[in-house]
Batch of 4 targets.
Target 1
Amino acid sequence: MTPRWIAAACVVLGWLLLCGWAWRGVRRRQAQALAARQGVDASPSQDAMLVAYASQTGYAEALAAQTADALRAGGLTVWVAALGQLDVARLAGYRRILFVASTYGEGDPPDAAAAFAEHAMQTRTAPAAPREAAQSIGLAICAASPQPDAHAPLAGVQYAVLALGDRDYRHFCGFGHRLDDWLHDQGATPLFDLVEVDGGDPAALRHWQHHLGLLAGRSDLPDWQAPAYESWRLARREWLNPGSQGGPCYLLTLTPPDTGMCAWQAGDIAEIGPRRERGGPLQPHREYSIASLPADGVLQLLVRQMRSADGGLGLGSGWLTGIAQPGDDIALRVRSNRNFHAPQDDRPLILVGNGTGLAGLRALIKARRMAGHRRNWLVFGERNAAHDGFCRDEIEAWHRDGTLARVDTVYSRDQAERRYVQHCLLEQAERVKAWVDDGAAIYVCGSLQGMAGGVDAALRQMLGDAPLQTMLHDGRYRRDVY
Ligand SMILES: Cc1cc2nc3c(=O)[nH]c(=O)nc-3n(C[C@H](O)[C@H](O)[C@H](O)COP(=O)(O)OP(=O)(O)OC[C@H]3O[C@@H](n4cnc5c(N)ncnc54)[C@H](O)[C@@H]3O)c2cc1C
Ligand SMILES: Cc1cc2nc3c(=O)[nH]c(=O)nc-3n(C[C@H](O)[C@H](O)[C@H](O)COP(=O)(O)O)c2cc1C
């Protein structure tokens, strides 16, 4: 070998070693970031800050991650954890904790935080001194704040709450406020007043970021931008229920943007930027469960057209099912919804839903099929078999090829008395118990009104309150209801 060849080989070898070293560094940093995000081994530490989130459909979790990133930009060590993974002792190990919490139902916590709310938050100490508005001055608390009881469980902890909600609900930010009150009663001291966010209001988020800037010692933190929409093409729209007594329901097929297919998992949500007319400005987003997998090459949605009493089209559903036409561009972004991702193992899965809830269940069944996990039982409800058998051919094919071990379809109006999915579950209580004893998880998708409550009551009757609560806590009972 000539010296020139030897020199060239050395350069290539050096380059490969450098790449390997850099790659290991990247992997290590990725692993650290993931661990920090998931709160893995988040051993309490006085120096580190904790960002705890309570999220049902992923928005609070996403904002918790952004909060942590903003604080890290100021050089702070920050852990992120779901509230459901924490207890009072763990909280007490941190000096500063930021909470990002959404609200569901009648001012309730998200499912994954239900056990925390039920157990930890039931422990009330003697109410702390009455509150005065906290005024953040950098990291210090306004000297006028009442002195907390030094023996209270969370004395010495400073906290703030970002409460997510929607003013259309009666108990606006109800859980965030409950959490705030409870923290106060436990002797924790507010860093600044609770920040309420109505439907992702950018002004409220800027207010929160302002406080993060003070905590991080940075005045130059960039404003949070909502993730950018991408332009998907509405390729096809099939009317699934002509002649139905219910509102028209459509299967929409969207083809990817020019930038290529983005990644998502079964259970994730598409946020759509609707327009009031073709070419008009984008309106506040609406959420739809994704009904397909990236492997399908298209993104599909099942959308029910909504109308007000005066016949006006609903903003999001009207845009998708009436105003936009095949060939039009649809502004869409995908939001991760970890709470509704498929189990990673091959445990049995009971999938329960009604109406457009089939969307989320369909994506899950497809994911299970791809993974070769075949112990799946679908219980699906609609109004009439003659008109509302959404995706019937596909479901029957999955039943025939063993993807679905069992299928029950329940049509509420095909007989004199109303019959719903919860009745079907109750009739098969022994089978439900046997599946649960075998390790099954239960996933529920569809209507909050009627269905979710009815299914919950039926499961409590069959399995018992405490065992179902444990399943909720362990992620074996998951809901994506709206
Ligand atoms: C996590 C999640 C997943 C979802 N997945 C799906 C899904 O897969 N498929 C699906 O179809 N939906 C889904 N939804 C519901 C969806 O996001 C929308 O809420 C739904 O499409 C209605 O929105 P809209 O903009 O069409 O109606 P809006 O304009 O928001 O109106 C809401 C309701 O109020 C009525 N209304 C509107 N204006 C008036 C008025 N002036 N006076 C009286 N009444 C009025 C409308 O008719 C409608 O019934 C999901 C929701 C969530 C939170
Ligand atoms: C079924 C359902 C029930 C809700 N109930 C309430 C409520 O009672 N009070 C409230 O302020 N917001 C309520 N919201 C709004 C959510 O709190 C809000 O959309 C929040 O941003 C969701 O965050 P997440 O994705 O982290 O769960 C509800 C939303 C849904 C879909």
Target 2
Amino acid sequence: MESLNCNSCGAPLEVPDSANYVKCNHCGQQLVVRRSESATFTEAVDRLAETTEALSEQVEELSRHNELAELDRRWELERENFTFSDKHGHRHLPDEKNSMIGGIVTVVFGCLWTIIAVGMMANAPNFGLFPIVKIVFPIFGVLFVVFGATAAMRNFQMAKDYKAAYRRYQTERERIIREQS
Ligand SMILES: [Zn+2]
């Protein structure tokens, strides 16, 4: 027999060496007998349940934490698909306003080029290479307009897609955090 104390009321208990569970004669508390190398003591069963519950809550929180980290990691990768480099090597995300301004600038430049080129070529002579230059020179401006407008529309769409993807990510993140609390 071992001499222990009830963990709940402190009453002395005589416990068989092999017993893992014991009931306190004094207060009726169900007790678990804990044997470590240095000491033997009792622990109230509902306290044990509390410990288990706290532990499972910790595990749950950890898994939510992982879920959040996993979501963030996936978002980093997804955002990478939207990122582009400028001529200085700086990384940018698509922006609706910037792509619109870029498109307008390119189209205006292309129009001006075409108008000026047509004006300059109007009085050019019609021999040698002049007939070809008359056509090719203004066409540069037209190409500028076409490519500028196409690029602007593509960038604008990409900016919209990015915004939608970002909103999805934020919604998902809020959902995980909300479940946590
Ligand atoms: Zn007791």
Target 3
Amino acid sequence: MTISIRPASLDDISAILEIENKTNQMPWTEAQFISSMEVGHYSVVLQEEDNILGFAIYSPIIPESHLLNIAIHPNHQGRGLGDKLLQKIIFQNKTMGVKVISLEVRVSNLPAIALYEKRGFFKDAIRPNYYSGSPKEDALLMSLKI
Ligand SMILES: CC(C)(COP(=O)(O)OP(=O)(O)OC[C@H]1O[C@@H](n2cnc3c(N)ncnc32)[C@H](O)[C@@H]1OP(=O)(O)O)[C@@H](O)C(=O)NCCC(=O)NCCS
């Protein structure tokens, strides 16, 4: 099976939304994905044959870039796809002159934290009560120098 990673388009939003709704406790809405594309965030999808299995969104403001969202469909997690997608994003950012990629992640999200650490991200700080909901949850701020 061939895996490819390509820029996302508005046509991909329904597949992206399906993955988002299955993986994020506070999912972005369709309107948020559309506006993210319209304001110029970089969106990429990972697909196997014709099936979209993951996506990522980042916002480069060179020399920095912010990873806003990354997810793999639950049925396809643990296959190395998230790592493939993250490595691609790191490569793309490096190519465009980014020096630091930063992100926030829920302190309870151990799979994502392990993925980021595997690719060299450092834990920088905790932002208390960053995520709304009840209870609120702290964010771990992480960054990678590239
Ligand atoms: C985080 C996420 C993108 C990882 O994608 P994935 O395809 O399942 O991960 P991979 O199979 O590529 O694994 C890569 C590394 O991630 C870490 N990892 C992945 N799943 C893990 C788990 N269940 N427990 C611990 N570490 C895990 C490991 O470091 C792994 O490396 P290893 O296989 O050498 O141990 C995926 O779990 C996901 O979509 N989660 C929901 C959305 C989310 O939380 N996004 C991050 C928001 S900040």
Target 4
Amino acid sequence: MSTNGSVIRIIIDGKEYLSRSGVYLIDVARENRIFIPTLCNISGVKPRGACRMCTVSVNGRYMTACTTPVSEGMEIKTNTPDLHDLRKAILEIMFVEGNHICPVCEKSGNCDLQALAYRFQILVPRFPYSFPKRTIDAENPLLVKDHNRCILCKRCIRTIKDEQGRSFFAFRKRGHKLEISIAHHLKDHLNKEIAQRAVDVCPTGALLKKESGYNIPISERKYERTPIGSEIESLKQSVIGDQ
Ligand code: SF4
């Protein structure tokens, strides 16, 4: 989506902001230090609306902020009790549909899913656990894929590519058996640097690098120092609203 549209005015949570038409709503929110949770969105990468965590109210309708371009006069609510409950339910579904055992996960403290669970104060999900039988695939010499922890956000597919733009990752199988795989024809090109990028881009512990672990001690990890969202909210300022 182009960011070169005309200057427009929109209302977010009762305050007026300037933006440019066509910019994705989640990016407008980020620019203005308004935290909208997401697990699949990465700034600058084409959005897919896969996780639905960024659902907001736009002119009274629920829409994903990552796939919605802003336009003149939009009225957006980012944080109502209903939206909070919806997002919490989405998180709970992710937890019951996978096997997320945080205390034994190398990503604990650096995991976006875990950090959001803390932010939304999830204790006992309202849905029954499904305890799916999933595998851990350690076939690749550099990466371990733990399908128990994959939330199918497609971040790895959309961002980890070779020079020709071919993705190192893909989905295989269908329905509830859908899982992430390393593209067969590219697996020999997967080097340590690419493996590290994949681990970093994954919002959970579904992708982990072999031969290293716990380089950052527990209690010194990203979300143990600052809760998720605080990096956006800490410099909160409006373009027009505070004038
Ligand atoms: S492996 Fe990680 S980045 Fe890839 S789809 Fe699963 S959760 Fe998302």
